[in-house]
Amino acid sequence: MVLGALHPPGAPPPVGFELLSVQPSLDAFARAFELVPLGQQLLNSLTIVAIAVPLTVVCASLTGFAITRLGRPWHGLAVTFTLVCLTIPASALWVPRFAVFRTLGALDTYVPLIAPALVGTSPLLVLLCYWSARGLSRDLIDAARLAGLGPIRVWWQVVLPLTRRTAMAVAALAFVAHWGNFIEPLLYLFDTAKATLPIGLSSLRQLGPTDAPVVLAGAVVATVPPVLAFAVAQRAVLDDTRRAGWVPRR
Amino acid sequence: MSERRQLGLMLAPYVVGALLLFVVPAAYSIALALTDADLLTPSRFVGTANFEELAFDDPIVPGVLWRSALFVVIAVPLRLAVATTLALMLHARARGVHAGRTFAFLPSVIPDAAWAMVWLFLLNPVYGPVNWLLGLLGIAPVSWFSNGTAAFFAIVLMLAFTVGEAFIVALAARQELPRELYAVARLEGARPWFVLRTVTLPLMAPVLTLLAVRDVAVSLQATFTATYLLTDGGPDRATLFLPIYSFDMGFELLRYGYASAMMLLGFLGCLALALAQFGLVRRWRLGVTR
Amino acid sequence: MTVLGASGSGKSTLLRVIAGLEPADAGRVLIDGADQARVEPSRRGVAMVFQSFALFPHLDVRRNIAFGLRARSAPGELIAERVRETAAALGLTELLTRRPGELSGGERQRVALARALAARPRVLLLDEPLSNLDAQLRVSTRNEIRRVQKQTAVTALHVTHDQVEALALGHRVAVMRDGRVEQVGTPDEVWERPANAWVARFIGTPPMNILPSGEAFRAEHASCAVDADGAYTFAFAERVGAERYWHLHLGDTEVVVRAPADEDVPERGTRISVTVVPGRVRRFDP
């Protein structure tokens, strides 16, 4: 992708080994920014991510811990509900969600794009938080309760510091998910000034095949931020996860 | 504030989000499916007409369902195998493992739309590197996006790399297995293949099952961006899967009622899988029972 | 006060109910005569030392000790002073900046005790406080707990499955079985005058001998000798700490008696007679 993007625009990139021997040129990038307001779209995407990622971390972690403190039958119901959500493809709910947001007057705003952060962006992230909160020793939580902390302060002072690994991983995965989100902007945004980067890429796609370097340059622009975010969080996500408690112990 | 109140407050965002994004839309989709809604003019109640059309009159639907099922049957085991193999290869601490994990996860970091652009380039029939590599092996160039079967497998291929989420979960599951078991296996002189079959995979089975059920939803969903940007369901409907077809029906042709009926079908299919999964969850204690 | 019971007898649940961490199915929890049913755990004036110590791994020793006071938003000077006092009393002054991960088992135990005491509880709950320590540390920590309890004069409720620990630490001992209290008494009472046959068998190594006739006595209150007319037969000899015991049979009943001094171990099946110190025989309904 990077190699292709460094070739000059206006001609198809060379075939075979010649692809490797480039005279690096940023013309394709300049051309991509000319054709599509990539700068504005970059800003739009960043805005969404800046709101949605912290919101996801807080909501997923709060929910995960709160579920561990629920009594019967709510505990089981909450976990089951989350597992069921995990198995529903979003496409099954496109139309009714669209109708719901239309009723709420939230079309052509960022509300429908950020709303999933309330449910941890993906049910899987809530489950990760739930499992890792459940992995904390019960005595530890009880010690904090005896000391006089309510559930919210237990979460803030004990659970969140002790599951920082999980929070980092959730942040990274949420960033990737919101950043790459293509379908929802396509459904909910009409004003081109509000479009996000993936939408910009799909307009670049309309260009002919000879402009492959320009298309690839756009793809590079869209890929750099999540790669950076991932680089920051990669130790949290990919290091030895033993004791992070991401999968339930039997 | 009492403990109960605080717990309620902590769960409030999740409950609101769940209502807004799952419960209300799920209920609403049933209502929509019984109308001819286009969301522009007042909708009319049409009873089961949409479902009848789905079942008997729409000549495209059987093909879409069959193709989607075929895709799931091929793509899900493939993606799961890729994720699990990578996780098992990269779970231990060793040189290069960290780089390996990064490479395994990297394709999932790239936005779907950018990933599609990359494959548009890689699979280009004239200058694409894939055909060039095939040429080196003496295979005639494939016109990936004008041959139906080739296009179908191109989609499968490009989605076989984006398994980051499953990879991470499988990795965590593998690292959770007690080391003592592997010490015992070594002392008993068990061969790696035997250990894999009798220890590793059975112990990982609950998590792998969860991932498999989850991937039905994920992989089907992932076909949308790929088909929307690369093939538009073509050539000759060879890549017309359920998500893109229902999208066209609803958002291109404004037949929301009919699209709802179709999506409800997919929804019910997934719910059936979820219930099957609930049985597994019961048995394997993913958290429902303590 | 010590609660002694086998694992699964409900000791820990009892503590958790007293602390308010779990609701009681029946009965009431009174502290200084006041019913605690509607009182939040943190307002009951109880502190707990957990079996796992439950130290916060992300906080250093100072913050662990100060945790309860900070959680209740005590003024800064008071916190500093209490931490200093408590740490000094438990010999932790040097360790205040360390994290739990850098401490030995004994040190962690003392931090857990310090954290529980720093908030000056009315009742101190100790859940198997010694079971995570090795044998030598147990004795010194036992003395430490006794000393601190005397010094602070706090009411301590201690739960254990280890009878040595229970009899050594408790002023009074409650023996629990399947969630019920079988006997409450001083360690001497429980040892000398068990309330029933179950307690008699539960307390003591070796346990109290109970003959089919219902007569019961402890091994150290009886003597035995080789005697051709003896009612007992010899099975085997055993050393437990300073004592040597002979295991004898009376029909199907096994009886353990302190071995006579300077007597060679007899052959298996040798006839033995047993004499119990007068006044040391207890009777239970068979």
From TrEMBL, chain A:
Protein origin, superkingdom: Bacteria
GO biological process, one term: transmembrane transport
Membrane topology: Multi-pass membrane protein
PROSITE patterns from the UniProt entry: ABC_TM1
Compartment(s) where it occurs, according to its Swiss-Prot or TrEMBL record: Cell membrane
Similarity-based family: Belongs to the binding-protein-dependent transport system permease family.
Protein name: Carbohydrate ABC transporter permease
Organism taxonomic ancestry: Bacteria, Bacillati, Actinomycetota, Thermoleophilia, Solirubrobacterales
TrEMBL record, chain B:
Native source species: Solirubrobacter phytolaccae
Keywords for this protein: Cell membrane, Membrane, Transmembrane, Transmembrane helix, Transport
Subcellular location: Cell membrane
Stated family: Belongs to the binding-protein-dependent transport system permease family.
One of the protein's GO biological processes: transmembrane transport
Domain of life: Bacteria
InterPro entries found in the cross-reference section: ABC_transporter_permease, MetI-like, MetI-like_sf
Coiled-coil stretches: none
Upper taxonomic lineage: Bacteria, Bacillati, Actinomycetota, Thermoleophilia, Solirubrobacterales
Transmembrane segments: 12-34, 69-90, 150-173, 194-213, 256-281
Family matches, as SUPFAM superfamilies: MetI-like
Matches recorded under CDD domains: TM_PBP2
Topology of the protein relative to the lipid bilayer: Multi-pass membrane protein
Protein name as it appears in the record: Sugar ABC transporter permease
Start and end residues of each ABC transmembrane type-1 domain: 65-277
GO CC terms: plasma membrane
